[in-house]
Amino acid sequence: MLALSGVSVKSLHRHLLNFQPNQIMASHDYDDARGGGYDDPRQQQQSQDQLGYDPNYVPDSVKSFVVHLYRHIREKNVYEIHQMYETSFHTLSDRLFKDTPWPSVDAVAHYVDNDHVFCLLYKEMWFRHLYARLTPSLRQRIDSWDNYCSLFQVVLHGVVNMQLPNQWLWDMVDEFVYQFQSFCQYRAKMKNKTEQEIALLRQFDQAWSVYGVLNFLQALVEKSNIIQILENEKVGLEQFTSTDGYDYNGGSNVLKVLGYFGMVGLLRVHCLLGDYHTGLKCLQPIDISQQGVYTIVIGSHITTIYHYGFANLMLRRYVEAIREFNKILLYIYKTKQYHQKSPQYEQILKKNEQMYALLAICLSLCPQSRLVDETVNTQLREKYGEKMIRMQRYDDEAFAIYDELFSYACPKFITPSAPSFEEPLVNYNQDAYRLQLKLFLYEAKQQQLLSGVRTFLKVYSTISLAKLASYMEVDEPTLRTILITYKHKTHAVDSDGKVISNADVDFYIDDDMVHVVESKPAKRYGDYFLRQVVKLEGVINELDAIKLD
């Protein structure tokens, strides 16, 4: 066995298969943005029958794949596992299983000594492929939940002696959260459910429950002791980041790394629920200002910063959101060419576009362009320059743009509660999204008067309240209210409970005089010279390539 379980096989033995993620997408119609081309699983089944899919038929290349993968896992050959997982699995999927599932786990089990843990891992990949290429039925969604329960129970309560690639461990957590989100969206579309589907939903009401998902993620964090490991690492008592989470002393990295990525999973789930404060609190043990295990896997890096930035945006911590969006967008700009052959490449580009939209929102609500690198700023202006100018007007057209960008770039919010089975059946899959959009636009509309205040404060170093009131065409009591609102809206509470300022222009009032304090950004010459050096090297290379007669 790959893992010697401390619980009985009977208690762990659940049913069937599982798949991998391509990241979440928000879309204007808010439908499930990932998956295959069949809206109705019955159409999918009919198509599979027409293609002659036999779950018990195992091609020779698949036999070879499972036998070698099993051997490499037993030998803890992480490099070969990673190659087979990242390359061979996707190559075989493209060649043999473009429109059908992989062979069933029962069909391949005897090639791997019926190893319980390997079969759970195989089913995890089986379902991931199913979600990516096809549309899972309700029964398959429930079976996938059972498989995750069994797999995580082994990790939490067994003695796991495997070493798996960080990419695979990240994908497990990522897919787990994705399938939870997908199930919530599916369950919320009650209008066209069949009687059989409703009966299954009633029978398996605990499948993909929000409590179950949060409990598993929290259990992985606690059982792995990852928070204490990261604390000990700061004082030199542990090596986790320096070894990329791997154990070079013959142990296993599975529980520790799943616990580590579990913190990112908790952030993501809480963002889907609209609980941004709790989400950020779950991520606190990871210092995102430094390189870490989360930066090793590109999908993990992007997902972490996307949700971290979005949560800060919704909590009005615009400066922090701008700073982190800028860093990740610059990183993607410099490295995306190295990921062109990656299965996650399309998702990298999608998240890249979404984060530019979120950065445009942040900079419109909190003009802090000095925090943005010139390269990122150039890309931003090309994509959203015209819209950002219109967003400063705070009229109906501006709010329509805020609506458009938020709807495009936000996570796919979920309503985790069980549906009402009473007639008439209604769809409620967009309720959570509409609520978050409403709260966001309410916040944006409160900024309407602040743009006018900011414009005048930028012009004057001191100005009387009476004069400023006349310019803004309001009386003095109203102006004082506006100025207090400006103070409130340009300040937020950080994760440590301290009040921080997001303002590029601040002020104080003394004897009915407004004194303006404008922050002077430090000029950064280094970036400019580095860019010129790179350009010069390019010119020199071009000159060297010229052959003179």
Structural overview:
With about 550 residues, the chain is mainly alpha-helical. The protein contains 23 helices and seven strands. The protein has helices spanning about 10, 40-50, 60-75, 80-95, 105-110, 115-135, 140-155, 165-190, 195-205, 210-225, 225-235, 255-275, 275-285, 300-315, 320-335, 345-365, 375-390, 395-410, 430-445, 450-460, 465-470, 475-490, 525-545, and strands at about 5, 160, 460-465, 490-495, 500, 505-510, 515-520. The strands form three sheets. It has a three-stranded antiparallel β-sheet. Strands 1-2 form a two-stranded antiparallel ribbon. Strand 6 (about 505-510) and strand 7 form a beta hairpin. Helix 13 crosses helix 14, helix 15 (about 320-335) packs antiparallel against helix 16 and helix 16 (about 345-365) crosses helix 17 (about 375-390). It starts with a strand and ends with a helix. Residues about 5-35 and about 35-40 have low confidence and may be disordered. Component of the eukaryotic translation initiation factor 3 (eIF-3) complex. Belongs to the eIF-3 subunit L family. Its main location: cytoplasm. It is found in: Cytoplasm.
